[in-house]
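Note to self: user wants both folds in one dump. Writing first protein now.
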Amino acid sequence: MLTTARRDSDNCPNASSSERFGDRLSPDALGELESLKVFSDHEANTVLFMEEQAPSQVLFLLTGQVKLSMNSSTGRRMILGIANPGETLGLASALSDSTYDVTAETICPCRIASLCRNHFLEFLTRHPAAYKNVVRELVTDCARAREQVRALGLAMTAPARLARLLLEWCTDGQETKDGTRLCCSLTHGEIGEYIGASRETVTRIFSEFRYRDLLESRGSTLIISNRRALEIYAGAERVSLSKGYARKVA
């Protein structure tokens, strides 16, 4: 089986030497930002904040990965994406003073820097140049949501949705002589929440992909040996709108 409930910190990436939100800030602004942060460590499966909760702080992910999800009125959960080191969590809610629209839960042990919402807003008032970084983070959030809509809305079958998810992960994968190497810390059930399928369906599709030599699995590591074959299997043409009609583009 590809994944288990065990959360191994070795499968979660670490932050680079500089956090993304601090990029291109002046030394004074960056120093002040760092002085306002409170640092904490969290075990796997820790809920950092929940939907409908009032936004009290902004979180900066330093190490590890955080799962972002939302629940339907019937209690069904859908995973929207995985936040990686350098990303900022809860930013849109903090700016709009609206409740969190997602739940953030650690996948593996994480180190978090938190900043009180009021202190963060005051910091932006003193350093307007930081709004450029705010915009960049919001664009990342929008892109994540857009890709999830694309995956669920344009891929009609569960195998195609899973193939597209794997292709998306390949973007950040490690190229080796055997193919693209991915580390996946999600269980089959969580992957199902990502693509709108049951755990049993995900397990069956992975078995089919292995049978068709589309991938190899070694514990929590995936090797995509032939990305082109996976693209063909996924029917990975992109549907775009141009001048009011739909057309396929490679």
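First done. Writing the second protein, which came from a different request thread.
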Amino acid sequence: MEFFIAKRLARFNTGSFSSIIIRIAILAVAISVAILILTASIVEGFQSNITKKIFGYWGHIQILHYTSDRALEGIPIMNDPILKDTILGHKNVKSIHPFAQKAGILKTKEGIDGIILKGVDHTFDWTYIEQSLDKGSVLTFTDSVPTRGILISRSIANRLNIKINDAVLVFFVKGTSVNTIYRKMKIAGIYHTGLEEYDRLFCFVDLRHIQKLNGWNDNQVAGYEVFLKDVNRLDASTEKVEESMPYMYRALSLKEIFPNIFDWINLTITNKYIVVILVTLVAAFNMVTVLLILILERTKMVGLLKALGANDWAVQKVFLYHAFLIIAIGMILGNILGIGLSLLQEHFHLIKLPEEAYYMDHVPILINYFNILLINTGVIFMINMILIIPSLIIKRITPIKAIRFD
């Protein structure tokens, strides 16, 4: 009975003052839901894009010498096939690759620039870098001699006016000597990840160059990069990898190596929850106002229902159902608006960002339909729970006073 009356009220409410308020309430709920969906999609997009870039660049876990402080050259460890097989034996480990680093100076006809060479071998997973390639190709390796190719970033290429297949010189300081040594290399490819802090420094070369420049043998590397299948199990996987290594090695997750970036990501997640709570409360209090107006406008009906024998809760349910119908219409429109705007941004990148500040040139979007379901469920539950409080005013309305109410 209560739901039937609520539907009749909603259908034949046109022309009254409350009809204008209801339209405003529907619009407010729609905008609130759209904002919540956009907020969740943008935060998810930021988190996914930045972590994908960082992990694609460095792997999920790095294995280093116990006393290494991640200095450029680091303290070498053995490139041990048995250790690699042990680590690969963990269920969540996808791959493991040795690496080494060395600082140098890149010289061209246009000028010079400080860089860091990152040495990798034939086992390196180029998937992420290939997705970030502007021109050229990734490095190709041969068994006989180290490749002379070098992969540089767009940032370095623009600063020094370098093109594909250009020959460049890379100079290095040899130990404590004032003398320098150099290597002549050829630009194999130009990449762009958007991580400007790293793009302007790092170039990829054959690992064997770094080993020779550091005076290491063929079995010495600076460390390993470990890639995982499920990044959500990063902390647990780091502990398991740590437990399976010799005492002189240590495993560090990327969260430990770059805490500032992950703290920033966590801050955006915190902001998401704050926005969700505030916007939901605004929508709820807007509906409180609407419900009070509906009750006051239908005071005579309240009195008549009570006179006919309806108890307070039955009358409350009439108005709560009416409010629920308003919320439902607003939420349907809000979902269409929120998901629609998210899809537009995802496919057409309408809103741009300064890449040097945000590591990407547009507002990222990741539509998570499970999150959208949670948002809709949470909004409906919270608003309806809050609406029970103003509906209690019905208990103070007596049939005699209500029927005579003008």
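Dump finished. Worth passing along: The longest helix spans residues 17-58.
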